[in-house]
C-alpha cells in the first residue's frame, strides 16, 4: 500500500483520505522529523512519554518508503501516515550536503463513534507534537548555518563572566538569530536561562526558529511589535501581557538564584509605558538596545536604573548592517511585485536617513527617478547635492509628480489624510518601518480594504482610485521573507556578542543610562573590522578562525556542543 493510495487530492489541492468511508483527515504536515522522532513511532511508543500509552499499536510499511502508524484508542483508530517528500529547494538560506530529508505526515481518524471526542483529541495532540518537533532546523541545517557565520564563530568563546547571567533576547525570528543564540550558549549562557522573544513580523521561517529554540531548552514566545507601537487589538494586548508576566517571572527567578539579567532588545520593550503599566515591569540588570526607536523610549523613561549600551547608532550598524538591511529591502520589493517595471519610473522616497538614503541610492542605480522628502533640511541638502529631486513634504511633492511607488523609511506617519487625494491610481506603498503607512494599515481613515494574497492590501481612495500597501503594513523586508543573508549579518551579530560579553563583565562599573562610545571602543579593540575585511573583502580573504578571542574547535552536534559558529 502506498501513501498515494491512501490519500487523494481535492480540486483545491488538499489531500483527502481514501482509506474507508469513515476516515477523516485532521492534518497534513511537512517536517524534517529527526530519526529519533520517527523511531519512537516505529517502536510503537507515543511521542510524549508522560502521556498514557493507548493499547493496540500497529506499524505498516508503505511501498514508497514510508509507513503508517495506527493506534487503537478503544473507540476508534488514529493513524499517522509518513511518506518521504521528493527532493526540493532547501528550506533554509544555506543548502546542506547531503540535503536534509523531509517527510509528509497525515493524521487521520477512522471508525470513530460520533459521540466520542477522544480519538479526535488524540489526533490533535499527536499533530501538535509532530508540528513542534518537525518545525525546528535539523542538525545538518544548523551546522551549515553555523559555518556561514565565521565572525560569530570567532568570538563565540567561553567567558566565565556569563556563568551567573540570564539572557533575554528580543528580535526578529530569522536564521541569524539562531546563530546569535548558538554563540551566546557557546559563550556561557545556560540554555535554560535564555528567553527568546519574537517581535511578531511574518518572517519566512519564524516557526522553524521557534521550534529550534524550544528544542534547545530556551523559552520562546512572541511579544508583538504592534503592542510596542500601539497598534494591537485587545486580544493581542492580552496575549502580550501574559508573555510580559512570564518574562517578569523569568527575571525574578533569575534574581532569586543570584543571577543577573541581560536584555538584548530590538525596540525598547523595557521602557514602554509608565512604570506600573509596562508589559515588562521587572528591570533587567543591563541592556543592549539595537534600534533607534528603542533608544527613544528608554531615553524618555525617567525610572530606568540600568546601563544601556547603544548598538543602534554604533559604527558597525551604521556602516555595515544598514547596507545589508537596505539591500534586503530592495530585494524584497522587487520580489513581491515581479511584474512591475522599475527602470525609468518615478519613485517618491519618504525619509533620507541612514536607511532611506541607501534605499534611494539603490533604486536610482536600478534606473528609477527618485524624489526625496525629509523634514530635516540638512537631509534635504545632502539628497539634493547627491543629485536627487527633493521636496519638504509628501503633499508638496505629490502636487508635481506621479510616482508609481512610494517608499517609507521614517518610522513615523509618512502620509496624512490630506495626501490621499493626491496619490496616483494604483500606486504601490512600501514601508520599511512599521508606522510609515499606518494611516491606512490601522484603518484611521474611511477606506475599503481587500487582500491581495501574497502581495498586500488594496485600499480605496477618493475619486475611484486605489493604492496597494505591500506586505502587512509592517517592515516589508520581513514579510514572508528571511531578510538578510546570514553572512550579511555575521559582523553585526558578532559585534552584538562581543558587546554583550563586555557588558556582562563591566555592568557593575557602568553608570545607569545610555552609552554609545563603549560599543565602538569594544568592537574596535576586539579587531572585528580587521577580521571582517580579511574574511569577506580582501583578495586573499581567509576564514575568520582564531583571532583576538580565540578560535573554535570541533563541529556542531545538535547545534552547538562542539563549537562556538529590517530592523527598525
TrEMBL record:
Coiled-coil stretches noted in the UniProt entry, renumbered to this chain: none
Annotated S-adenosyl-L-homocysteine hydrolase NAD binding domain residues: 323-483
Domain of life: Bacteria
InterPro entries listed in its UniProt record: Ado_hCys_hydrolase_NAD-bd (IPR015878), NAD(P)-bd_dom_sf (IPR036291)
UniProt-listed Gene3D superfamilies: NAD(P)-binding Rossmann-like Domain (3.40.50.720)
Chain positions covered by the region annotation Disordered: 547-568
Protein name: S-adenosyl-L-homocysteine hydrolase NAD binding domain-containing protein
Species per Swiss-Prot/TrEMBL record: Streptomyces capoamus
Amino acid at each position: 500500500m502506498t501513501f498515494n493510495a491512501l490519500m487523494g487530492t481535492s480540486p483545491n489541492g488538499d489531500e483527502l483520505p481514501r482509506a474507508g468511508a469513515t476516515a477523516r483527515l485532521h492534518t497534513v504536515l511537512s517536517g524534517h522529523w529527526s530519526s529519533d522522532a520517527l523511531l519512537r513511532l516505529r517502536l510503537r511508543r507515543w511521542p510524549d512519554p508522560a502521556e498514557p500509552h493507548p493499547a493496540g499499536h500497529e506499524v505498516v510499511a508503505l511501498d514508497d518508503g514510508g509507513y503508517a502508524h495506527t493506534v487503537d484508542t478503544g473507540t476508534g483508530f488514529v493513524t499517522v501516515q509518513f511518506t518521504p517528500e521528493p527532493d526540493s529547494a532547501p528550506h533554509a538560506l544555506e543548502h546542506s550536503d547531503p540535503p536534509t530529508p523531509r517527510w509528509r505526515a497525515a493524521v487521520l481518524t477512522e471508525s470513530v463513534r460520533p459521540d466520542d471526542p477522544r480519538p479526535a483529541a488524540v489526533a490533535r495532540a499527536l499533530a501538535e507534537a509532530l508540528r513542534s518537533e518537525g518545525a525546528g532546523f535539523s542538525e545538518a541545517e544548523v551546522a551549515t548555518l553555523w559555518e556561514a557565520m565565521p565572525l560569530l564563530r570567532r568570538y563565540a568563546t567561553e567567558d566565565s563572566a556569563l556563568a551567573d547571567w540570564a539572557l533575554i533576547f528580543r528580535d526578529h525570528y530569522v536564521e541569524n538569530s539562531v546563530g546569535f543564540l548558538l554563540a551566546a550558549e557557546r559563550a556561557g549562557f545556560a540554555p535554560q536561562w535564555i528567553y527568546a522573544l519574537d517581535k511578531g513580523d511574518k518572517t519566512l521561517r519564524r516557526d522553524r526558529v521557534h521550534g529550534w529554540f524550544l528544542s534547545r531548552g530556551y523559552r520562546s514566545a512572541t511579544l508583538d511589535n504592534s503592542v510596542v507601537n500601539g497598534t494591537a487589538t485587545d486580544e493581542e494586548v492580552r496575549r502580550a501581557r501574559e508573555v510580559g508576566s512570564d518574562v517578569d517571572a523569568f527575571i525574578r527567578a533569575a534574581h532569586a538564584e543570584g543571577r543577573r539579567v541581560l536584555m538584548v532588545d530590538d525596540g525598547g520593550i523595557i521602557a514602554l509605558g509608565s512604570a506600573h503599566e509596562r508589559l515588562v515591569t521587572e528591570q533587567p540588570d543591563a541592556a543592549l538596545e539595537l534600534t533607534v526607536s528603542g533608544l527613544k523610549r528608554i531615553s524618555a523613561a525617567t525610572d530606568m536604573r540600568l546601563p544601556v549600551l547603544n548598538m543602534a547608532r554604533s559604527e558597525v550598524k551604521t556602516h555595515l548592517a544598514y547596507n545589508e538591511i537596505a539591500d534586503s529591502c530592495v530585494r524584497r520589493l522587487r520580489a513581491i511585485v515581479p511584474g512591475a517595471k522599475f527602470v525609468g519610473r518615478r519613485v517618491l522616497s519618504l525619509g533620507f536617513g541612514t536607511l532611506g538614503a541607501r534605499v534611494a541610492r539603490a533604486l536610482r542605480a536600478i534606473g528609477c527617478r527618485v524624489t526625496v522628502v525629509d523634514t530635516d533640511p540638512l537631509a534635504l541638502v545632502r539628497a539634493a547635492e547627491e543629485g536627487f529631486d527633493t521636496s519638504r513634504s509628501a503633499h508638496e511633492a505629490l502636487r508635481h509628480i506621479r510616482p508609481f511607488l512610494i517608499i517609507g523609511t521614517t518610522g513615523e506617519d509618512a502620509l496624512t489624510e490630506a495626501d490621499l487625494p493626491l496619490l496616483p491610481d494604483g500606486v504601490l506603498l512600501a514601508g520599511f518601518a512599521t508606522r510609515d503607512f499606518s494611516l491606512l494599515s490601522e484603518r484611521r481613515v474611511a477606506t475599503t480594504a481587500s487582500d491581495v494574497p501574497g502581495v498586500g492590501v488594496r485600499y480605496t481612495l477618493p475619486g475611484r482610485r486605489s493604492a496597494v500597501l505591500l506586505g502587512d503594513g509592517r517592515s516589508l523586508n520581513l514579510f514572508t521573507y528571511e531578510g538578510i543573508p546570514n553572512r550579511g549579518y555575521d559582523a553585526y551579530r558578532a559585534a552584538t556578542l562581543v558587546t554583550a560579553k563586555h557588558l556582562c563583565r563591566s555592568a557593575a562599573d557602568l553608570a545607569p543610562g545610555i552609552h554609545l562610545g563603549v560599543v565602538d571602543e569594544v568592537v574596535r579593540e576586539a579587531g572585528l573590522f580587521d577580521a571582517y575585511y580579511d574574511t569577506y573583502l580582501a583578495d586573499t580573504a581567509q576564514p575568520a578562525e582564531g583571532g583576538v578571542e580565540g578560535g573554535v574547535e570541533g563541529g556542531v552536534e545538535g547545534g552547538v556542543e562542539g563549537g562556538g559558529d529590517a530592523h527598525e
